[in-house]
Specification:
Distance between the termini: 51 Å
CATH class of one domain: Alpha Beta
CATH superfamily of one domain: Methylthiotransferase, N-terminal domain
Oligomer: single chain
Number of helices: 13
Strand order of the largest sheet: 2-1-3-4-5-6
Number of strands: 21
Shape: globular
CATH architecture of one domain: 3-Layer(aba) Sandwich
Helix content: 25-40%
CATH topology of one domain: Rossmann fold
Bound molecules: iron/sulfur cluster
Structural class: alpha/beta
Strand content: 15-25%
Radius of gyration: 22 Å
Largest sheet: 6 strands, parallel
């Protein structure tokens, strides 16, 4: 048997990218690739990029600069760039970075073996960025082979597959792409039009995962509540119902959603499907009707508040997290105050907040960027201060509560402690035996911090 080659992946961005990196690992393992552990040991380095914000895109280019030095020392090293920046820039990247061998678009991951072979054997540099809109081919290679036993796959950025057969949680793609064209967002241009994966494929993948010890799945897609079952007519709530029946699986989560497409049927699934955890990520973006219109979001602040009310009626303890974008072109002080007001009215459990930056060809990039950078920073700081206080207060309200935690592994700070999440997606640390990993454990919350809770097993 030939010596295994070594792969290093650096992943930026969202869970879709993390999942794509997992797919790449699954594909490359079949070609006898092992984790490199660090870039200097790699035969193949792939950077899985994100272009949703300028700041993340810049990180991609700094990573490329670092790997350029390695390539100069080791010319046989294959250096590839995938993800949204690859899709957006395509061949131009090969011109701009003469040491880059491969550019792989978001719909071309399944072609990696053939592309890498061509780069190695024919010494060609390739940009493969065709979008396979409407083609189920996009989902080829989505089912991850769980290695058992195998070393740990890690990358420089928050990405790891604990491939020891004891994986507790997994991401499962249910749909890809987006048809919404929010005016600030580049996703429809780099991820293509919406396509849903077949429900039978999804069911099969999750059943396999559960048999391998996975206890929680997060169903992912750019807008999971527009899932259409790839011609079968299966709605997202139907899909949840079917997944709920899988033996061995304890918990279901999903992300991300669009408030406009959040149907009453889906809201009703909370509380009706016992494995569906009481947490939803419902991106708000702005609390101002005028900004929401400019963003082409398709709902008003009243619509959003109504959905929140319906969710809380269906499941009183449901945790709601959101995304907020400040400094959108034309955002006036009063618009920003509407966002602050909505934040205080909803009292989200968590938020992800960002400063707006132009993302051509998204349509808002043709507007004048009239909120100065300094002002965007001030607004972001205010939003984050308000939310920090709310999060802490909400965490403190949980002290004394009994919660069910799915144990994910040893705590990073103290290996004698365990870490896991409540159904509402809060991180909980508590002393306990490693035999509990992968199990649901009842705990009592004893302390609350900004980002986590402390507990004792009951
Ligand atoms: S719903 Fe809007 S923000 Fe979300 S991926 Fe689609 S276009 Fe982007």
């Amino acid at each position: 048997m030939k010596d295994a080659k070594k792969l290093y992946i650096q992943t930026f961005g969202c869970q879709m990218n993390v999942r794509d990196s997992e797919r790449i690992v699954g594909i490359m393992q079949r070609l006898n690739y092992e984790p490199a552990g660090k870039p200097s040991r790699a035969d193949l380095i792939l950077i899985n990029t994100c272009s949703i914000r300028q700041k993340v895109e810049h990180k991609t280019y700094s990573a490329l600069g670092r790997f350029k030095r390695l390539k100069a020392r080791k010319p046989e090293l294959v250096l590839g760039l995938g993800g949204c920046v690859a899709q957006q820039e395509g061949e131009a990247l090969l011109e701009r970075f003469p040491y880059l061998d491969l550019v792989i678009g978001t719909h071309q991951i399944h072609r990696l073996p053939e592309l890498i072979r061509t780069v190695r054997e024919r010494k060609e540099r390739i940009a493969a960025t065709t979008l396979l809109n409407g083609s189920p081919e996009r989902f080829r290679g989505h089912t991850l082979q769980i290695p058992n036993p195998s070393p740990r796959w890690t990358s420089g950025q928050d990405y790891q597959i604990p491939g020891n057969g004891n994986r507790v949680k997994a991401l499962v793609t249910v749909m890809e792409g987006c048809d919404n064209y929010c005016s600030y967002c580049i996703v429809p241009y780099v991820r293509g039009r919406e396509i849903s994966r077949s429900s039978d494929d999804i069911l099969r993948e999750i059943t396999d995962l559960a048999q391998c010890g996975v206890r929680e799945v997060t169903l992912i897609g750019q807008n999971v509540n527009s899932y259409r079952g790839n011609g079968s007519g299966t709605s997202f709530p139907d899909l949840l119902e079917r997944i709920n029946g899988i033996t061995g699986l304890f918990r279901i989560r999903f992300t991300t959603t669009h408030p406009r497409d959040l149907s009453e049927e889906l809201i009703g699934s909370f509380g009706r499907r016992e494995k569906l955890c009481e947490h939803i990520h419902l991106p708000l973006q702005s609390g101002s009707d005028s900004v929401l219109r400019q963003m082409n979001r398709g709902y008003s602040r009243e619509d959003y508040l109504h959905k929140v009310e319906q969710l809380r009626r269906a499941s009183s303890g449901i945790a709601i997290s959101t995304d907020i974008l400040v400094g959108f072109p034309g955002e006036r002080e009063e618009d920003f105050n509407d966002t602050l007001d909505l934040l205080k009215r909803v009292r989200f459990d968590a938020i992800f907040s960002f400063k707006y930056s132009h993302r051509p060809p998204a349509s808002a990039s043709r507007l004048s960027e009239d909120v100065p950078e300094e002002e965007k920073g001030r607004r972001l700081g205010l939003i984050q201060d308000v939310q920090r206080q709310i999060t802490l207060e909400k965490n403190r309200e949980l002290i004394g509560n009994k919660e069910e935690v799915l144990v994910e592994g040893p705590s990073r700070r103290d290996p004698e402690w365990l870490t896991g999440r409540t159904r509402s997606n809060r991180v909980v640390n508590f002393p306990g035996d490693k035999d509990l990993i992968g199990q649901l454990v009842p705990v009592e919350i004893t302390k609350a911090y900004q980002n986590s809770l402390k507990a004792e097993i009951l």
